[in-house]
Amino acid sequence: MRILVLGAGVIGSVYAGKLLEAGHEVVLLARGSRLADLQSHGLLLEDAESGNCTAQPVVVLSELASDDHFDLVLVPVRSEQLVSTLAVLTAMTDGSDVLFFGNTGNHGAELAAALGERALFGFPAAGGTRDGPTIKYVLIRQQKTMLGEPDGTTTARIRRLQHVLDGAGFPTLISADIHAWLLGHVAFVVPIAFALYRVGIDAPRLAADPATMRLMVLATREAFSALRATGNEEIPTNLRALYRLPTVLVIAYWRRVLNGPRGELWFGAHSRAAPAEMHALARDLQEAMRHTGRPTPNLERLLATPA
């Protein structure tokens, strides 16, 4: 498969590297210092758990040729950057499938309308940071890479894409309602981000703050309960099970996560790099909560935190 990765940040780089290893032809579209790093050093990845480092030659472009052809375009950019990718995507005439790969927020309908049947949606199962030319990453074993058609059907192309990602080392699930799944993810990640904002985006410091930890857990539990009450069945099973436990046990789980390297690699790095995205997602979450008609006082209190 010939794949264009439109955005060479942490997620784009990790998935590009694994897809290259699996034998696919991958082209990265990058600009600025990231373009220069990739041209000078290649694709440098460091697995934060194993310490394994890889360096791969990769084709990197600053712009596309008018006659270039791809089977798939992977778009792993932040939600506030999504609409700006449409100029590139709509100019492509190759009919390639386009996988928007991350928090789409309230842009899903706009993106699907702009690209028609080319549009797909999904979410990665990796996190990390960029240190100069090197991407230090961790694969999130507790979460599968998610895929979904805009209308929730399971098509031949979504199964092919699942096979491609499975083959590259990313266990992948197809969602029957990817937009509901993405909203459930927002209900989980936004409270963590806003709890981090209360403590200077310092994961161990958050772990040591019992009041903020409790508020974070209660806020997420409220949001999950409101979504389930209105029929959202796409909240991941592991998170549903976790948030059914007594609050003290949920806090203990997140304290362990936040005190280790996963606290920074899963949550801290992205919360620090993307406050505009987190605030936009928080507004989307508040709007969704209003539509449920359910009170969420702890969530509202937490979201009053400035970044």
Strand content: 15-25%
**Through-space gap between termini:** 41 Å
Q: What's the pLDDT, averaged over the residues?
A: 95
* Helix segment tally: 13
Class based on secondary structure composition and strand pairing: alpha/beta
Spatial ordering of strands, largest sheet: 5-2-1-6-7-8-11-12
Structural shape:
globular
Low-confidence stretches: none
Please, could you describe this protein's structure?
The longest helix is centred in the middle third of the chain and has 21 residues, at 178-198. This protein is α/β, with parallel strands linked by helices and 307 residues long. The protein is globular and about 55 Å long. The N and C termini lie far apart (41 Å). The strands form two sheets. An eight-stranded mixed β-sheet has the order 5-2-1-6-7-8-11-12, with helices on both faces. It is 49% helix and 18% strand. It contains 13 helices and twelve strands. Helix 8 (210-229) crosses helix 10 and helix 8 packs across helix 13 (297-303).
Topology:
Layout: E1 2-6, H1 10-21, E2 25-29, H2 32-41, E3 43-47, E4 53-56, E5 59-61, E6 72-75, H3 86-91, E7 97-101, H4 108-115, E8 119-123, E9 126-131, E10 134-139, E11 145-148, H5 156-167, E12 172-174, H6 178-198, H7 203-207, H8 210-229, H9 237-242, H10 247-259, H11 261-273, H12 275-292, H13 297-303
Parallel strand pairs: 1-2, 1-6, 2-5, 3-10, 6-7, 7-8, 11-12
Antiparallel strand pairs: 3-4, 8-11, 9-10
